[in-house]
Amino acid sequence: MKVASTPHRSDLDGLSALVTGGSRGLGLLLSARLARRGCRVTMAARDEDELRRGAEWIEERTGVAVSTAVCDVRDLRAVESTVRQADDRHGGLDIVVANAGVIQVAPVASLDSGAFEDAMATIFGGTVNTAMAALPRLRASGAGGRLCLIGSIGGLLAVPHLLPYSCAKAAVAALGEGMRAETAGGDLSVTTVHPGLMRTGSHLQAEFGGRSSKEFAWFSALSGTPVVSMDADRAAERIVRALEKRRTRLVLTPAARAASVAHGVAPATVTRLSGLVARLLPPPPTGGGAAGRAGDGIEQGHGVDRGAPTWTERVRRLGSSLNDRAAHRYNQRIPGPPTSA
């Protein structure tokens, strides 16, 4: 699959861009879209092999070579070094997309404070590290720097069984609004993006707790269902266009926009509806807390034991088929023997 070319010359042509979490999923597609528009792209991620495969994926589909940098966004010194390298390599830094993150799916009764600390360190702390390290260089950009923070609809309203993720993304939303306000009137623009469900194949990288196989089943099926979820490549194109236009805020998918508006108008009603949804999701294992978590474990989606192909697994496969294909396309698969299914 080739990334579609743009029908017009982009004003991003020739600019230098850094994308964190750029080796797979949405970050990979954003890197490819920016490369297609003529940007000199540096992709940053923790896994060197993933980065290599991602760079090959982009060059194969766009004909453009991109640079890579191994970086854990939780480590401020590593982020500062990566930002400096991207600046030195391309003679400046014009665009930074803070996209790195984690997804944890579990009832709150099966979590402890460590899950919240991990989400905040990676999603919010990683975004803060990236933004703060990049700001001086983006301000120095002759083209007028562009900073893009990837939030989530989960940061605009709390989503059941995604509470650590929602809390961290809510902090990203506040950061984006505040930074936009404090940089208003200058050449630097700040764009905060709040996607809804997207078919990126991220269910294989997400972390599942409680009754992990059942949590995996509902999350992978829902995030792969058409209408409810969005094609990831189309989402990447929308985000890059928002960067071109220096938009302040972008909420992706009709369902996410409707939920955001409803929460703003009637937050108590939306919270009650969320409570009803929570009752439909898998309950925590008996005992809850650390005992419940130990009963099934916290594990990534690619390692979840799905057991025999029961009717729930068949339903999951039906709903998740597009997302499973996305995982193959967008570098989400883990090399090695296939997991049980």
Summarize the structure.
Helix 2 (48-62) links the parallel strand 2 (40-45) and strand 3 (67-70). The chain has a single domain, classed as Rossmann fold (3-Layer(aba) Sandwich), CATH 3.40.50.720.
**Count of DSSP H/I helices:** 11
CATH fold type: Rossmann fold
- Shape field: globular
**What is the chain-wise order of helices and strands?**
EHEHEHEEHEHEEEHEHEHHHEH
The count of strands amounts to 12
| Domains, number | 1
User: What CATH architecture would you give?
Assistant: 3-Layer(aba) Sandwich
Task: Say which CATH homologous superfamily is assigned.
Answer: NAD(P)-binding Rossmann-like Domain
Assign a percent range to the helix content: 40-55%
Q: What is the rounded distance between the termini?
A: 27 Å
Radius of gyration over alpha carbons?
Answer: 19 Å
The strand line-up of the biggest sheet is 3-2-1-4-6-7-11
Which residue ranges are poorly predicted, with pLDDT under 50 across at least 5 consecutive positions? 288-296, 335-341
Strand content: 5-15%
Mean pLDDT: 87
Which CATH first-tier class would you pick? Alpha Beta
Biggest β-sheet strands, sense, barrel: 7 strands, parallel
The computed structural class is: alpha/beta
GO molecular function: oxidoreductase activity
Region (Disordered): 284-313, 322-341
Family: Belongs to the short-chain dehydrogenases/reductases (SDR) family.
Biased composition (Gly residues): 287-300
